Amino acid sequence: MSTTAPSVLTSAASALIRDLAKNRWRNGEATPPILDIPGDRATLARCLGRPFSDLSWLQAERFVSPHLPAGADTATEQAFFLVAAMVCGQSPRGRALDTGRDRVSSSDDPSAGSLGRAMAIAVVHRRLLDDKGAEGRLLQLASQDTAGLHRRLPTLVKFLRDGRTPLSWEQLIVDLAQWRYGRNETARSWMRDYHRTRLNLEANKRRKDKISDSPESENR
């Protein structure tokens, strides 16, 4: 498990995501979020697909290192850097979800959560893939070591975000930080979140469809 306390990890992750996606206040003045500054955004995005020994990650230090928890281990540091790069590597559609310019406004849409929850939303609400496909992708991730997960995850996350799928970046940082020593627990948590969320969303959808098809609804 990560050597950083969960509450400290979550707080630091939230601060990083705010810095990336929301206006930042410096000396009483608002400055644009990193997502709205093309050069800064590109600095982080170009890190994707490169080993952590690559010099491009050093250029990302100025944006990420201020938010790292004190005494963070390597797994935690890499989780922060990788998620920051994924946030900045999104398409405009994905970035708009984070900055609030493209709100998921439907009252039927569930809130953001873990990767497993996001996969369920992608299946039931977004129709980006089917049940077997989603389960297969989660199983594929579960078989990866940390390096393999870091290689495969950005493609899946970009796919979900391009489809306007809610995802908690903060939770993803926490999960990635724990992967090295808690892979089985994290993978199991993703799979459970996926199946529970999918079943709940499908049940809710059936209830709404039944109500909309009832004679009472037709007479309104």
From TrEMBL:
Protein origin, superkingdom: Bacteria
Ranges annotated as biased composition (Basic and acidic residues): 95-106
Region called Disordered, residue ranges: 94-114
InterPro entries (alphabetical): CRISPR-assoc_prot_Cse2 (IPR013382), Cse2_sf (IPR038287)
The organism's taxonomic lineage, starting at the top: Bacteria, Bacillati, Actinomycetota, Actinomycetes, Micromonosporales
Membrane spanning stretches: none
Gene3D superfamilies the UniProt entry points to: CRISPR-associated protein Cse2
Protein name: CRISPR system Cascade subunit CasB
